[in-house]
Amino acid sequence: MKKKAYRNTPAFVFLSWGAFAFFVILMGIGLYTLKEPLMVKGYYLMGSVGLISTSFTLSKVIRDNQEDEERYNQMFRAIDDDSDKNI
Hints:
Blueprint: H1 10-33, H2 38-86
């Protein structure tokens, strides 16, 4: 049975999530201490949450498209190799 291999080391994953959590906490502190009406704080909060969620979605879409392109190229390389053998 093959052992599951991950692309990133556990230290890198921890660093990524740690940095994400750190900056979310900093954003929360900044919004809490902001001397503006609640409406302005809500606007900044919605913008921050939207930016964070679309960043995750965009990175997933880019990764998926790249993996699909690699699979597509491998499939046609295999077809080309088979057709070369039949000649």
